[in-house]
Amino acid sequence: MVLPAMLAVRSVGLGGQRFAFALPEELIQYFVTDTSDSEWQTVGDKWFLYLVAVGVLCALGMLGVKFLRKQSAPNPQARNWSLGETVGFICLGFIPLVLLCFIGWKFILRNAAVIGGYGLMVGMVFGILWYALFMLLVHVVSPWRRDLYPKRW
Fold first, then answer.
1. Which residues cross the membrane (predicted)?
2. Of 82, 81, 79, 56, whose CA–CA distance to 135 is shortest?
3. For residues 132 and 140, is the Cβ–Cβ distance under 8 A?
C-alpha cells in the first residue's frame, strides 16, 4: 500500500500491543505543544487514540445509562424524554469525558509535557465534539430519535 508523503506509518504500543497506523502529521501537530522532542509523533498518536477511545466509551456509557433509565421507567409516558432532558443528559456526559481527558493527560501519558496545556485543551474540545457527534448519530438512527426530534403537531 502506498501512502501519501504527508502520512507516516508509525508503530505505536498500547497495552503491550504494537500496531502500525497512519495519521497525518499536520493533524497530530494540533494535539501537541512541543514538537522538538524526538517522540512527539508517537505521543501525539497515543493522545489522539486515547481521545477517540474516551469519546466513544463515554458515549456508550451514557447510552447504557439512558437505556437503563428508560427501561426502569414506571410507565410508557415516563419513557418519553423532552428535547431539553435529552440535550441536558448529553451535556452531562461532558463531565466524565473532561475528567478522563485530564486523568489520561496527567497520569497515563508519560510525556505530558509534549502535549502541554494547549494540547490538553484541544484534546478536550476534540473529545467533546467526537462524543457529541457519536451521541447525535446514535439518536438519529435509533428509536430514541423522537427524543431529539419530537413530532410537531
1. 47-65, 86-108, 120-142
2. 56
3. no
